[in-house]
Design goal:
The complex is a heterotrimer. By secondary structure, chain A is mainly alpha-helical. Chain A contains 13 helices and no strands. The chains are: A mainly alpha, B mainly alpha, C alpha+beta.
Chain lengths: ~300, ~290, ~400
């Protein structure tokens, strides 16, 4: 119990240092999360200050209502298309770039460029490229003798089109993460593998690259999935959920309910479910990250 | 243990086949790279064209009729895009400064000082990293409405004043700073504040720079929060203005893409100037799992 | 068993010429070390022998068969890497089995999932397991088979790396600084084990190191490299006692050889102005090398007088001691010749077991050093060895 004056001074200092951050964390994270939870049990709307406790009604409403199921389904379709491609193409391109040392930096820059660009602005460009009548994409299809597509206007295609835009914006990010993972693999492992007889592309990938990339791959898979679930910007700019709700994704629905219709209680419930989904992904990652390869 | 078995070797290396595959791969990579940058090329090209040429069937990179001057003049001087850019800059800079001011001291305390509650605080930081703004936006919005700060810079910046990610990141970074040096500094009579200012921060410059890029880019490109709290032209950010464009300038395509170019340019140019820093900054979420 | 020959191997990276046309023949069962400072080209040469790099020019032949166009796996070699290069995601047993799996199973039997459908996957398994266990037994690592590399100590990893190399029954055993990640004590032990492995296996060993002690203790021959060429190739003894270049004399031996300025006048050599009983043809400055143990201390109770010094022709030089290091069985004296403060001289002397630190030898700073001209290694200004011989004894020159 004999704490020196210096130790006590240090403790006081520590509290001083954490005070602003702690205060803000309470105000920006802890408080709002508690309020969201409380709000999700009420029929609060911003319009009137009067509200009632409605129990789990907001949650049961989700299960019953078509828009929720529609938004969840749309998000899954979109993510199911985007995530595997963003992962796989990112990995393939990273491996290919890694093997071409003389072009590495220029290719890295070109593939990464879309990541820095403001997606809302570039979404307008993509809308023009995907224009059903005069867009470059259909022009190219036409030139190759293929049928043209109504990229953003067709309910069957709109999610795929949005996923293509996101793929363009996201792939370079994954590529850079994979490149970092690849660079960290000791070169001597490939030498050892070559001496052991694993010198073909498939063997090198299966015996060395893929196992050594484990933690990176896990991380990329989880971040990509979470990013895919968070799609909002392109929908808000390009489709506003249309045509006919075919691109109404989860966060866009939550946004509409909360900030357009002011159904704050319901929107709060939607937000909490979304948080659970994100937590689930984070949990998967946390479980796997412990198995990280040590060397 | 027999002699070197030539039969075991399939067509010695098949060197030529490998080389051809290698070059074909390179070709595909550059083709892919072309697709990646084509939207930029198309955007800049269209921003130099008169409206009727933007959707011309025969796309040319260089416009047949050069309207670049008109388009950019309109965007920069007749429309409030410079204000939008300035708003974006003010918001991003304000967010970053407060983030650094709150995160660095907290991270140092978590990394190097012993105090009760540090585990709880760190736990809150870790949990906070997974919570996106979309989840907490409703109460924060309601709070802002109640205090009457809607459509102000403070409202635009407030939810990002503390970055739990920055605290986590800096803590990890500070932890690697040798305790022996801190102890030597204490013996030499440095106060704890001096230690932070003169030893820790200079050593953390790469992490701070990378985080700054990360934060700046993230908030520059953010659409969700400005969409919720901004209602006037005076406070509109560059990103948000693109949403407005969808409806407002339907007929002026050349101008629309000049505006898009102006808004995209700051981040792209900054990226091209400081590639390493940008790549490490934007992907820094990947540095530590 | 394999004989290896290297013929005018050249290799450049960009503008830097790393290997400038080196040739060497290594006999079957020989243990040859490639030694040199980092950047001398030794590792590149080893990688070229392994087939991990292709030479720009020249030929590598194993048992007379050129192997330039063969990939590593077809050369029937084994290699131990500096960082061991164990597969961190595999158990020790799987690490040891890797070379056999790659050699004995076709691609389909190595793929995930698909492999369970292939007959080879099943049929080859017992044989591979047997070979792994045999090697594990030989290296006494049976108890580690289920562990991963991260759970092993440095010495254990080293053994696993050796095991992975041995399991494929190679003709040629290549090692790239295999001891550099071990602590000093372990290094001595593993050094002995590698030497024993060489003796019992009878394989041809090629061993790359920057540490001359490792090279000297284990090798049949040492090839000392510098700037992409061999300075000298020979037995450890030859390199130590008969270096052909000053750089060789300096690199081999610890503490470093003493180099003293000399002058040739009419075929006779003077050391710092003092005529020596030593003749070298030509005129001009020479560099005289003297191993630390080739200098004796006069009138020093407690020290053994080196038996190889010829008492009849010793030359006395006053020696100013600066520092005495007690190394246990021997002492090391640092200082300079009193009349020549610019010299930096090290003397190594065996204790007779009775050296007292408060005795005259240890406490005096002014000593007398004794030099035998016969022990001098003479080099010209460019560092090339010069032929020297002592003259018939003249009564006046005796000490």
């Amino acid at each position: 119990m004999a704490r020196t004056a210096a130790e006590r001074r240090q403790t006081r200092l520590a509290y001083g240092l954490i005070a602003p951050a702690t205060f803000l964390i309470l105000l920006i994270y802890v408080g709002p999360i508690l309020v969201v939870f409380g709000m999700s049990l009420t029929d609060y709307t911003l319009v009137s200050d009067y509200y009632e406790f409605v129990g789990l009604e907001n949650y049961s409403r989700m299960l019953e209502e078509e828009p929720f199921r529609n938004a969840l389904w749309n998000t899954f379709v979109y993510a199911g298309f985007l995530a595997p491609l963003a992962f796989g193409l990112g990995l393939i391109i990273a491996i290919a770039i890694q093997e071409r040392k003389q072009f590495r930096s220029i290719l890295e820059v070109l593939f990464f460029l879309p990541v820095t660009a403001t997606l809302t602005a570039m979404a307008l460009v993509w809308a023009a490229l995907m224009d059903s009548r005069q867009g470059v994409l259909n022009g190219t299809l036409d030139l190759m003798g293929l049928p043209v597509l109504n990229w953003l206007g067709s309910p069957d295609l709109v999610l795929i089109s949005l996923a293509i835009i996101s793929l363009w914006a996201l792939m370079g990010f994954n590529m850079v993460l994979f490149l970092a993972g690849l660079t960290a693999i000791p070169k001597s492992l490939y030498d050892a593998a070559a001496i052991d007889g694993a010198d073909g592309a498939i063997d090198k990938f299966l015996r060395v690259t893929w196992p050594m990339l484990g933690p990176t791959a896990m991380f990329v898979a989880v971040t990509t999935s979470i990013t895919a679930f968070k799609i909002f910007d392109t929908v808000a700019v390009l489709t506003q959920g249309g045509p006919n709700r075919a691109s109404e994704v989860y966060l866009y629905l939550a946004y509409l309910e909360g900030f357009e219709y002011f159904n704050m209680g319901y929107s709060a419930a939607l937000s909490l479910i979304f948080l659970l989904i994100v937590f689930a992904f984070a949990l998967i990652q946390a479980l796997f990250i412990d198995r990280k390869v040590h060397y | 243990m027999a002699g070197i078995s030539t039969t075991a070797v399939r067509a010695p290396f098949s060197l030529t086949r490998r080389r051809i595959a290698f070059h074909v791969g390179t070709l595909f990579l550059f083709l892919g790279a072309w697709i990646m940058i084509f939207p930029f090329i198309w955007m800049v090209s269209s921003s130099l064209k008169p409206t009727d040429e933007v959707f011309d069937k025969n796309f040319t990179i260089w416009p047949n009729t050069f309207a670049g001057f008109d388009n950019y003049y309109k965007v920069l001087f007749e429309q409030p895009y410079l204000t939008f850019l300035m708003n974006s800059f003010i918001v991003c800079a304000g967010i970053l400064i407060v983030q650094l001011l709150t995160a660095i001291p907290a991270a140092y305390a978590l990394a190097k000082l012993k105090f009760r509650g540090s585990t709880i605080l760190f736990g809150a930081v870790l949990a906070g990293i997974t919570i996106p703004i979309n989840v907490t936006s409703i109460p924060i919005y309601v709070g802002i409405v109640k205090v009457g700060l809607l459509d102000t810079y403070v409202a635009m910046m407030f939810p990002f004043f503390v970055s739990v990610f920055a605290i986590f990141l800096f803590r990890q970074f500070f932890r690697t700073f040798p305790d022996s040096i801190i102890q030597a500094a204490r013996v030499d009579g440095f106060t704890e504040i001096e230690i932070i200012l003169r030893l820790i921060i200079p050593s953390a410059v790469p992490a701070i720079a990378a985080f700054s890029v990360f934060s700046f880019v993230a908030h520059w490109n953010d659409l969700y929060w400005p969409l919720i709290v901004v209602s006037s032209q005076e406070k509109m950010t560059a990103t948000l203005s693109m949403l407005q464009y969808q409806s407002a300038f339907d007929n002026d395509y050349g101008g629309a893409f000049a505006a898009a170019t102006v808004i995209t340019a700051p981040m792209v140019v900054a990226f091209l100037l400081a590639r390493r820093l940008f790549i490490s900054g934007i992907t820094m979420t990947g540095v530590k799992g | 068993m394999a004989q290896l020959s290297l013929d005018s191997i050249k290799k450049s990276y960009d503008a830097t010429e790393v290997l400038k046309g080196v040739s060497l023949d290594i006999a079957d069962g020989e243990f040859v070390s490639l030694v040199g400072q980092s950047g001398c080209g030794k590792s590149t040469l080893l990688r070229i022998i392994a087939g991990l790099e292709a030479p720009d020019a020249g030929e590598v032949a194993i048992d007379g068969v050129p192997v330039n166009d063969l990939p590593p796996k077809a050369r029937n070699i084994a290699m131990v890497f500096q960082d061991y290069a164990l597969y961190p995601h595999m158990s020790v047993a799987d690490n040891l089995a890797m070379p056999l799996i790659m050699a004995r199973l076709p691609l389909a039997a190595r793929l995930p999932i698909v492999r369970h459908l292939t007959p080879k996957h099943r049929s080859e398994r017992p044989g591979i397991r047997g070979a792994v266990e045999k090697v594990a037994h030989q290296l006494r690592i049976e108890h580690l088979l289920d562990r991963r590399p991260a759970q092993l100590s440095g010495g254990q990893r080293q053994r696993v790396a050796l095991g992975r190399a041995l399991v494929r029954d190679p003709k040629l055993f290549l090692m790239d600084e295999p001891l550099s990640n071990l602590d000093a004590k372990l290094r001595v032990q593993v050094r002995k084990e590698i030497a024993e492995l060489h003796a019992t296996s009878g394989l041809t060993f090629i061993y790359v190191t920057h540490d001359q002690t490792e090279a000297m203790t284990m090798s049949d021959r040492v090839a000392l490299m510098q700037g992409g060429t061999f300075l000298q190739v020979g037995s450890p003894n030859a390199l130590y006692t008969d270096p052909q270049k000053l750089d060789v004399a300096k690199f081999i031996g610890s503490p470093e050889i003493n180099v003293l300025p000399g002058e040739r006048r009419g075929g006779h050599v003077a050391l710092m102005g003092r005529a020596l009983n030593l003749a070298i043809d030509g005129e001009g400055p020479v560099q005289l090398g003297l191993r630390p143990e080739a200098i004796a201390v006069a009138d020093a109770p407690g020290l053994i007088f080196p038996a190889e010094l010829d008492r009849a022709q010793l030359i006395e030089l006053p020696f100013q001691k600066r520092l005495l290091e007690d190394l246990g069985p021997e002492i090391l004296l640092h200082g300079h010749f009193a009349e020549h403060p610019e010299t930096d001289v090290r003397i190594r002397a065996q204790k007779s077991g009775k050296l007292r630190m408060d005795g005259p030898t240890a406490s005096r700073d002014e000593l007398t050093a004794l030099i035998d001209p016969d022990m001098i290694l003479a080099f010209d200004a460019a560092g090339e060895r010069l032929a020297a011989h002592t003259l018939a004894l003249q009564p006046a020159g005796a000490a």
